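FAQ

Q: What does a record look like?
A: Structure on top, sequence underneath. For example:
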């Protein structure tokens, strides 16, 4: 018996020694190749280290010449379903949260310091996964055959056909224990300076905020259809500088939103926003922009006569002169919320495999803008215990990012089956970054002292993991989808949230108490959502389909 134990011990020791010896041997071979390439610059050896040769003296960024994820085929043709923004294959495959069984793991919270308060506190995203990925490569869908035709020239087409190019695969690899964190550059501006290109070849979501005294699109206090929670001017916000900014892409100029032209292209049609309160924020902005161009304001009205839109429901604004409607359908998860009674009370679940029952209200629309994200950060969804349901099975526990991906797959299957691509343009608006400092939305987070955007990109964190999941799903849809990638441009705007200006205070004590419960998620109107609609207008023109042909 004793000899058997000794034999097993020897076998275990040998198993442990073998990987170590292999590792030592591999290290010696790599070091030898490194010295060879630095000494001789040989054609055979150098390519193995071509990625490392691009490291600059002051940068920790490494050009990585190959994909780290074998599940992504980097030699295949680029994805063909995303209009306007098509990611390089290796970039899209870079899910830092992918686990061995294929599920998505959530990321740790990332702080986003304020530009002038970085030493005293952090501006954080309540989602816990805020930040940025690579600058997307541009492409346009051919509506006839659903294939990608690159507008970035022969060189770009060649690079996309060969897989991800080395210069676009700049990544910082940082090992902390067994955890690997991948970061990608934000901004850049290969097309910057005076070398402007046409909007068809330009990434309109890669840019910066610049002052523009011609803004906003409608005067402060002029639109009666702004929810009180978004009407910062009504509630006495003393500064107005936050409305005097415009988004300037690095490589091109985008047109201002021509409200008359927008309505003319929408004549006889139906445009619908579907999603959570951030899409309602955008919907109210568009209604106000379009209404401001109408002479007879009474010919613009919500068809049920309502003027408050915070409650869950379906709302529709009619523009009589153009026989069109601009609607909002409240569906924060896109998939179905469910509940049933038990002996212990009501039990709520989220059906990841079924669309919300509101789909009949927008399946025949001409333009649909979807979004979903912020409700996935709430306690019940984040915890994921006895909440997510598929069929008759309720998951004992499911990570929120995996649940989000499954919900998006349900949405993708639904649009592929129910949307008429010859009639309807589909868009998905990305995650709108939040700026809570010193806590979260329910724990004293603040942003009311912010009066300027962030200017230093070093204070911008990681690209939201939920949006990486979204981009992965968008590659699989048969229906082309325009991705409104607003995450980065909103991350700069820590100055433009309602904060404490969501209501009117009767006493100083009420005003002080409000500082403990601020809104650093939504946006003042006029404000940042006006820019989202400007980019919506530019994206529809860029797609050039149906009535949006130039």
């Amino acid at each position: 018996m004793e000899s058997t134990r000794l034999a097993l011990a020897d076998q275990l020791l040998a198993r442990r020694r073998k990987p170590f010896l292999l590792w030592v041997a591999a290290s010696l071979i790599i070091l030898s190749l490194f010295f060879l390439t630095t000494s001789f610059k040989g054609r055979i050896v150098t390519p193995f280290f071509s990625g490392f040769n691009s490291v600059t003296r002051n940068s920790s960024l490494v050009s990585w010449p190959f994909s780290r994820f074998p599940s992504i085929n980097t030699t295949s043709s680029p994805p063909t379903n995303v209009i306007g923004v098509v990611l390089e294959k290796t970039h899209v495959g870079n899910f830092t949260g992918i686990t061995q069984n294929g599920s998505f793991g959530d990321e740790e919270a990332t702080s986003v310091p304020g530009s002038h308060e970085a030493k005293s506190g952090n501006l954080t995203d309540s989602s816990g996964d805020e930040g940025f990925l690579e600058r997307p490569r541009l492409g346009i869908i051919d509506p006839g055959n659903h294939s990608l035709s690159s507008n970035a020239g022969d060189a770009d087409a060649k690079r996309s056909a060969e897989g991800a190019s080395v210069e676009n695969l700049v990544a910082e690899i940082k090992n902390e224990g067994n955890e690997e964190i991948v970061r990608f550059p934000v901004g850049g501006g290969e097309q910057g300076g005076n070398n402007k290109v046409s909007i068809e070849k330009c990434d309109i979501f890669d840019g910066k905020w610049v002052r523009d005294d011609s803004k906003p699109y409608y005067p402060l206090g002029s639109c009666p259809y702004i929810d009180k929670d978004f009407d910062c001017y009504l509630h006495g916000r003393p500064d107005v500088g936050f409305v005097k900014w415009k988004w300037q892409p690095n490589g091109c100029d985008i047109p201002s939103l021509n409200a008359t032209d927008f309505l003319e292209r929408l004549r006889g049609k139906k445009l619908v926003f579907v999603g959570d309160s951030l899409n309602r924020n955008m919907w109210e902005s568009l209604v106000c922009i379009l209404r401001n161009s109408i002479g007879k304001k009474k010919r613009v009205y919500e068809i049920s006569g309502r003027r408050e839109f915070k409650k869950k429901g379906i709302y529709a604004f009619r523009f009589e002169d153009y026989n069109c409607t601009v609607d909002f359908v409240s569906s924060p998860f896109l998939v179905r919320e469910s509940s049933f009674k038990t002996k212990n009370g009501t039990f709520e679940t989220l059906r990841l495999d079924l669309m919300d029952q509101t789909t009949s209200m927008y399946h025949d629309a001409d333009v649909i803008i979807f979004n979903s994200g912020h409700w996935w950060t709430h306690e019940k969804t984040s915890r994921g215990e006895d909440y997510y349901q598929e069929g008759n099975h309720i998951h004992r526990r499911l990570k929120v990012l995996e649940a989000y991906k499954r919900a998006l797959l349900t949405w993708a299957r639904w649009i592929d089956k129910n949307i008429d691509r010859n009639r309807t343009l589909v868009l998905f608006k990305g995650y709108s970054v939040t700026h809570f400092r010193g806590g979260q939305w329910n724990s004293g987070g603040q942003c009311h002292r912010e009066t300027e955007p962030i200017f230093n990109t070093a204070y911008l964190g990681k690209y939201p993991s939920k949006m990486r999941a979204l981009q992965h799903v968008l590659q699989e849809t048969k229906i082309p989808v325009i991705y409104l990638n607003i995450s980065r441009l909103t991350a700069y705007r820590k100055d433009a949230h309602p904060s404490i200006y969501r209501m009117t205070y009767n006493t100083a004590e009420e005003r002080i108490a409000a500082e403990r419960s601020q809104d650093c998620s939504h946006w003042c109107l006029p404000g940042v959502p006006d820019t989202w609609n400007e980019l919506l207008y530019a994206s529809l023109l860029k797609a050039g389909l149906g009535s949006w042909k130039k």
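Q: Is there anything notable about this one?
A: The longest strand covers residues 345-355.
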